[in-house]
Prior knowledge:
This protein has 17 helices and six strands. By secondary structure, it is mainly α. A two-stranded antiparallel sheet has the order 1-2. The protein has a two-stranded antiparallel ribbon with strand order 3-4. It has a two-stranded antiparallel ribbon with strand order 5-6. Helix 1 crosses helix 7 and helix 2 packs across helix 6. The N terminus is likely disordered.
Amino acid sequence: MAIKLRSAALAVGAVVVAGALGYTALVEYGLHKSYPQSIKVADTASADQIKRGEYVARLSDCTACHTQEGGKPFAGGYTLHTPFGDILSSNITSDQETGIGGWDQEQFDRAVRHGVGSHGYLYAAMPYNAYAKLTDQDLADLWAYIRTIAPVKNKVVENQLPFPFNQRWTLAGWNLMFFHDQVFQPQELSTAEINRGAYLVDGPGHCASCHTPKNLLGGDSSAYLQGGALQGWNAPDLTSNPHTGLGKWSNEDIVSYLRSGTNRETASSGPMTEAIENSTQYMTDADLHAIASYLKSLPASNTPVPAAVASTSEPMIVGKKVFESQCSACHVSDGSGIRQMIPTLAGNSQVNAPDPASLLNVVLNGSEGPLTHANPTAAGMPAFDWKLSDSNVADVMTYIRNSWGNAATAVSEQDVAKARAATHAKPWAGHAE
């Protein structure tokens, strides 16, 4: 804990110092920059432009973060839990008082692609570092659509961070270190399809926001799309690594997963299900195939494959018994699951992930199956938090992660206890008071 506190203190000091140094350098780049007037739209946008803008909004998954559970679409209030504290999403409806009804396209562009809102620098929980890659046309179309959203009066106190993270001026330093303010540039040696996929992944899709690990200051590390931790979930490796990534997936597997939330290997859960339901299921076939082509073109991460835990160890013996009594009815005794419905555990890259966070979250809290146009009858996963002790969960997780050709580090009882607390899972019913 002391090491973590010292690291946090160093991180705070670094961002404050960088902010102080960077604010002057970024005056023209940020708050006081006059953005070009070239991407204006007519006062009355065409129906085609509005339709294109709605598609860009789908690609960008705007509704997921700007809609509070049970709230009106795009009215804000959704809580984003970050390592630095909570941030609430803004109201982006056309309400003049609490939304962005008084904005023009220049202000919208400044916020979306340059990270500067009406109150100053935006926090990178709003992925402007990805949206910076949006083309001028996509930005203009998106603005045309956003202007059609009915006004909703909903005042949101967005910044609920503790000091010093609530000081927006420090973000000038963050931008100086981690923000690349540049529209997407196609690669000459890549095909048009792969370039389109790269644009979708790195731009509106903002996949790196979850799938690239972050450093102490919340900036992207160099391990591009090699997996990251997010609010009690593990966003998996998207490279061609055959053990922890998409190496065993075909292009059609990726397309099926993004369109329906399932494929022959797995079914989505957690934040990825939200992204599929709100965004990727609405993508065109051409765009889905472009994403697949781009992801399959990425070099495999060099994550080492650990030695499998010996089948004769006590956790494996106990875990096998727990699996047979609690899991095999759905996942089948050989871990093969049910195609397009119940995930295959054998050779599953998420099962083999170095971080078992997603598996622990699903086992403890259960998971609703993805509900999409292509998959309207998905199967859910029941919660086992009340039914299994921390020791039982640890053992069955260790067994699953080291059977049928899988190989991953053992899960400890302490890992389960931490996940139970972090995800607010129920206590085991057999726990002695």
